[in-house]
Amino acid sequence: MSQPPVVIWAPAVKRLLHYKDLVPRLEEVLGKFSKRDSAEVLQPVRTAVPLQKHNGFMLSMPAYMENTGILSTKLVCLYKRNEGSTLPSTQATMLLLDPECGNMKAVMDGEVITHMRTAAVSAISAKLLMHPEAEVLTILGTGKQALSHYDVFTEMFAFKEVRVWSHTRQRADMFCQHVPGPLKAFSSAEEAVRGADVIVTVTRSTEPVLFGAWVKPGAHVSAVGACRPDWRELDDALMKEAVLYVDSREGAMAESGDVILSGAKVFAELGDVVNGAKPALREKTTVFKSLGRSLKKDRKPYVNCALLTFVLGGRNGSSGCRVCSAGV
C-alpha cells in the first residue's frame, strides 16, 4: 500500500531552492526540451479552464521525463484582479506522481517555485542574449515576479544601474524601499526604458506597456507577462524588429498575444541556443518571450538534491536528507 504524499510548504521550498542550483539545471532541461526527445521530456501545451465568474483561468501543466522517472503536473489559478484587491493574482500547486503506480508522492506549494523558475529562465535568456557589457537593467512591474527577477538578475550580473517602473509611482517607490540595493523609481515607463541594456516586463497589463521606439538598439527584452492569446505587453514594432526567442514554439503560437497578434516570427527556442543549434545574436535587439513551461516549473524543483532525496526516498530520515530535519 502506498504511503500518503509528502506535503511541502512554501517556507521549506524557499529554504531549499537556490538560484545557483536552479539556473544551470534549467539551462540543461531547456536544451533537452528543444531536442524533442520524448524519452527526455514529454509535455503537451498547457490547458486552460476559464473561471468566468471570478475573472480568471485554471491552468494545467503536465510533464513526464521517462529517463529520469519523473511524472508531475502544476495547477495554477490566474486572476485579473481589480485595482486595490487584496486577493492573490496567482495560486499554484505542484504534484509529483509515481509514473509506474500512479499514486501521488508529493504535494508542494508552487508559488516560490513559480517565481524563482520564471526569473531564472529570464536570467538564462539574458546570459545568452544580452550584450556582455550591459550596465543598465529596467524592470517594468513591481509585483512578486519583479522581486524574483531583481533577485536573480542582481545575483548573476553586475549592473551599474537598476531602474523600476509601475503604473503608479507609489508602488515603484515602495518596491525600492523593500529590496536590498540601490534602485531608481520612475514615473514614466519611457524614461525608465530609454538607454537600458536589459528590460524585463513583469506586468499584468493586457495592452502594450513597452514600445519599440523606446528600446535601445541591441538591448535585450525578457517579456514575462501577457500569457493569454489576447493580452499584450510589447507593441508590434518591437516584436517585428527584434529577433524573437521563446521557450516553446508551440506554446508561443498557442498562448502568447505578443506573438500571435503581432505576427512576429520565432527565430529560435532558448534551448536551441543552449544546444548550439541556433546562434545567440547579441549584437541585435532581442526579445525572449517567456510563457513558463511545465518541464521547467515542475521538474526542476526536484533537482535540488535534498528536496529530491526527501520526496523520492528520504521521508523518514533514513537518507540523512537535511529536509527531514527542516520542519517540512
TrEMBL record:
SUPFAM superfamilies: NAD(P)-binding Rossmann-fold domains. GO terms for cellular component: cytoplasm. The gene is crym. Homodimer. Binds the thyroid hormone triiodothyronine (T3); T3 binding inhibits enzymatic activity. Belongs to the ornithine cyclodeaminase/mu-crystallin family. Gene3D superfamilies: NAD(P)-binding Rossmann-like Domain, ornithine cyclodeaminase, domain 1. It catalyses: L-proline + NADP(+) = 1-pyrroline-2-carboxylate + NADPH + H(+); (3R)-1,4-thiomorpholine-3-carboxylate + NAD(+) = 3,4-dehydrothiomorpholine-3-carboxylate + NADH + 2 H(+); (S)-cystathionine ketimine + NADH + 2 H(+) = (3R,5S)-2,3,5,6,7-pentahydro-1,4-thiazepine-3,5-dicarboxylate + NAD(+); (R)-lanthionine ketimine + NADPH + 2 H(+) = (3R,5R)-1,4-thiomorpholine-3,5-dicarboxylate + NADP(+). It comes from Takifugu rubripes. PANTHER family: KETIMINE REDUCTASE MU-CRYSTALLIN. Signal peptide: none annotated. GO terms for biological process: thyroid hormone metabolic process. InterPro entries: NAD(P)-bd_dom_sf, ODC_Mu_crystall, ODC_N. This is Ketimine reductase mu-crystallin. The lineage of its organism: Eukaryota, Metazoa, Chordata, Craniata, Vertebrata. Its EC number is 1.5.1.1, 1.5.1.25. One of its GO terms (molecular function) is thyroid hormone binding. Pfam families: OCD_Mu_crystall.
